[in-house]
Amino acid sequence: MENSHWLTPAWCGVQEQRVLIGLTSLVTENPPMPPKFNRRRALFVLGKIDEILAWEQRKETERDTKFVELGRYLCEVRAGQYWRLEDLKCFDGFLERRFPGSRRKAYYLMSIHEHLPPQVRKQLKEVGWAKGIELAKLARRDRQHFDCATWLHKARVMPKEEFKQEVERELTGRETEPWEIIYFKLYQSQMPVIERAIETAALMLGSDRSRGYCLEMICADFLAGANLDHGDPEMLLFSMTRFFKFLPGEQQQVFLRGLTEKAS
Predict the structure, then answer these.
(1) What percent of the chain has pLDDT over 90?
(2) Is 83 within 8 Å of 94 (Cβ atoms)?
(3) Is the pTM of this model over 0.85?
(4) Helix or strand holding residue 16 (H, E)
(5) SS3 readout for 186-211
(6) Taking the domains of the chain in order of start, what are their residue ranges?
């Protein structure tokens, strides 16, 4: 076996370069030569990347426009009871058939047309359904006092996420921070203890807190305990700071007074 020679099958084609440039050590005595720069190929590849990204943007814009139309048609199906054409007993049955995963999206699309005034609905295709949902939240709150012109202008010129934060700030009166959705795979046997921990945290924080805040409190409590004895004082300080933010305003003042008294 030691003297065996492994033959490369003919169908394997040309073997790849064995030296991985830039993916090994940063310090080497004999650095490999960079590949020969192929300007023509580089222009082609970069152009293809830009072409695909532009196509994706066009598709997203087209989808936004189509969903605006979809919401209008759904409202018409409910108003005209068109679902009877398929021998269904109610509109919810129609939605279950068309949206088997979740009917929430359908109701979101319909809410745009239900709450926005006619002059805004005519221009929804310019802003898309995602921003239309945010506009509907404002229109539902302000009713006849809804400032159409101002918010339509913001919807046109602002990026989607920035516009959502602007609407959230207007509705709640407080600044919002960027967020993201994180998915976990959990086994059924793990669910009871996790649900119990989140429910307990919710009781401590108040029912108005989201499950994300509850999970953060649980993690902050763990980090504080883990660094209490001979741990990282910076991490302990960070955890305690997060705990302080969870306290209602009155308890925060009591906590600060206690620290002031001890310091003096």
Answers:
(1) 8
(2) yes
(3) no
(4) none
(5) CCHHHHHHHHHHHHHHHHHHCCCCCH
(6) 50-172, 188-254
